[in-house]
Amino acid sequence: MKLKPISIAILLSTLPTSVVFAAGLDRSGQSISAFLQPGNYAEAGISILDPEVKGKDTSGNKTGDMAGDYYFPNAALKIQATDHFSVGLIYDQPFGADAEYSGNNRFVENRPVPFQGGTSVTVDTQNLNLLFGYQPNENWNLYAGAVYQTVDGTVLLRGETYSAFNGYDFRTGEDESVGWLAGVAYQIPEIALKASVTYRAEIEHKMNASERFNAAGMTGNTVLDNAMIALDSAKGETALTTPQSVNIDFQTGIMENTIAFANVRWVDWSKFKVQPYKFGKLSERLGQAGMVPTKPNGFNLIDYKEDQISATVGVGRKFTDHWAANVSVGWDSGAGNPVTTLGPTDGYWSVGTGVRSSPATNYFIGAGVKYFWLGDADAVTGAHTPAGTFSDNHAIAYGLNMGYSF
To answer: 5-405: which CATH number, 3.40.190.10, 2.40.110.10, 2.40.30.40, 2.40.160.60?
Structure first.
């Protein structure tokens, strides 16, 4: 079976929309599909997430919807410099979080203190990927590149759930670091077959983050209260490492004007942890005082139990020379249960659809939507003490993108 060039151009644009909602802090899925398009190519898009995550604390109080809406853009430029060499830039926001508790529950501090309010988290990351590709023939593409990454995060712990850490503030400020990626792709354009494997290395950030304890969290234990006061003036480095990952992408023509596609992604969340310097020191002393389960090096503000595996499969269909669409089904394993109170869901199932219009052979405009059934989860604090249960939650994601060949 062979496809006409116009069929290939439209079908290749019917790949699934961004991951958008996944285990841990994973958001964009870190696709490099734009770099694997033929010839010179540019692309830009935006994804919007509207989640609803509700639950109950350990006292049975309802949390209300604690998950915030957010959006993130992406853009890519690929230049085929010669028949055998290509270069590209890809911008995306791979990891993120936006959540805040409200109402009358154990995740909210209502006493008249300077730091009342709800527990909240915001995480913003940006990746700029510089890729170089070598094509020894029309079928193979070997590529590698550098990744410039920024991370900016804020966590505010409020409410009885967090005991001595009620009123704790953690702010990273924007930190910069670099990493790398590498991969290989194989294609047979005549039948729209394309397969690729991409590995991304972990990226380490070291920062002098801002940490602050609040009087609302005073324990009544003189030794620990004095420790918090002393730690307020202490200085130390906080390390944060974004995880390594592997993406496997595959597509092939299955009949005239129709392709099947699949994506599998692995992310090494089981090694991810955030233990701010002062937070770690105080958690050590809590363990020594018998107030939390003893841990030699203290406990973490955020960590995950398991690696994430996600998969998306679907079918794309060209209806005319100008219109095409796709449908897809997705699954995400989550990163282990119980989970952090800052992101209390455990994986998902999803269904999505997208439509693309190609007014001319060299550009397209596309839109898509996905619905997510979010996995039920038991939430715990950093000390792994029970904090609440979250069930029957969902999310809707919308995407818009444009591509141009030149």
So the answer is: 2.40.160.60
- Distances, alpha carbon 235 to alpha carbons 182, 211, 299, in Å: 37, 9, 18
> Residues 111, 209, 346, CA angle at the centre, nearest 5°?
70
Distance CA 404, CA 352 (A): 24
Q: Are the CB atoms for 390 and 370 separated by under 8 Å?
A: no
Using a pLDDT cut of 70, give the percent of the chain over it.
90
Measured distance CA(9)–CA(364) in Å, rounded: 9
pTM: 0.93
Of 114-118, 196-200, 241-245, the range with the lowest mean pLDDT is 114-118
Residues forming a β-bridge with 47? 72, 399
Q: For the segment 54-113, what is each residue's pLDDT rounded down to a tens digit? A: 999 999 999 999 999 988 899 999 999 999 999 999 999 999 999 999 999 999 998 777
How many CA within 13 A on the CB side of residue 146?
A: 3
| Tokens found for residue 69 | 């809406």
Cα maximum dimension of the chain: 78
Q: Do the Cβ atoms of 37 and 14 come closer than 8 Å? A: no
Residues facing 177 on adjacent strands: 149
| Residue 326: exposure state from Cβ atoms within 10 A (0-12, 13-18, ≥19) | buried
DSSP states of 260-317: EEEEEEEE-GGG-EE--HHHHHHHHHHHHTTSS---TT---SEE-SS-EEEEEEEEEE
Residue 219: the pLDDT is 61
- Residue ranges covered by each domain of the chain: 5-405
Cα separation, 203 vs 240, in Å, equals 8
Instruction: Spell out the residues 6+ positions from residue 380 whose beta carbon is closer than 8 angstroms to its own.
Output: 338, 339, 340, 341, 386, 387
Query: Considering the chain, what percentage of its residues have pLDDT values greater than 90?
Result: 69
